[in-house]
């Protein structure tokens, strides 16, 4: 009897309309328990076409918590030239943070929300990708910039309630 896979529901947004940023994003990707690489390189499992993005920018890393019966995940920053913002924390090269049930991530102008729906399989997981035409994050609680250039964060429009 097969065990249900953990599902990562990943919503992605980039502010450039009609860009080719998400040209290589599949609707769904089943993956073993090795790190899932995100970047612009040919070896990235989730390829995003942005010149400021590193070939391997970050990874989603499944692991089994001590005494746990389900996969847990962490996010690890792999870029030497840019940072990754996760749930209010700014990660630099090789820093990582455990993920919660719902996670807000920003890097190189991309906004990403990762929702984890736990399954019981310890051998694989599946990512379901959704491309959002609307911004996913309105207020960053930590600075999300690339080290080479500082980009001021936009404030939400007045009356948006955010």
From TrEMBL:
UniProt-listed Pfam families: FHA
One annotated GO molecular function: deubiquitinase activator activity
Protein name: TIFA inhibitor
InterPro entries noted in UniProt: FHA_dom, SMAD_FHA_dom_sf, TIFA
Ranges for domain FHA: 36-91
An annotated GO BP: mastication
Residues annotated as transmembrane: none
């Amino acid at each position: 009897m097969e065990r249900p896979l953990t599902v990562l529901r990943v919503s992605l947004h980039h502010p450039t309309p009609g860009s080719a940023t998400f040209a290589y994003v599949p609707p769904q990707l089943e993956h073993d328990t090795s790190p899932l690489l995100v970047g612009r390189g040919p070896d990235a499992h989730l390829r995003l076409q942005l010149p400021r993005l590193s070939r391997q920018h970050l990874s989603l890393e499944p692991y089994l918590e001590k005494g746990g019966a389900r996969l847990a995940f962490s996010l690890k920053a792999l870029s030497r030239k840019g940072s990754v913002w996760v749930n209010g924390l700014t990660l630099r090269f090789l820093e990582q943070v455990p993920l919660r049930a719902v996670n807000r991530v920003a890097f190189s102008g991309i906004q990403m929300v990762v929702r984890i729906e736990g399954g019981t399989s310890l051998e694989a997981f599946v990512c379901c990708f959704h491309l959002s035409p609307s911004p996913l994050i309105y207020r960053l609680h930590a600075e999300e910039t690339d080290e080479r250039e500082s980009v001021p964060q936009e404030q939400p429009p007045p009356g948006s309630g955010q």
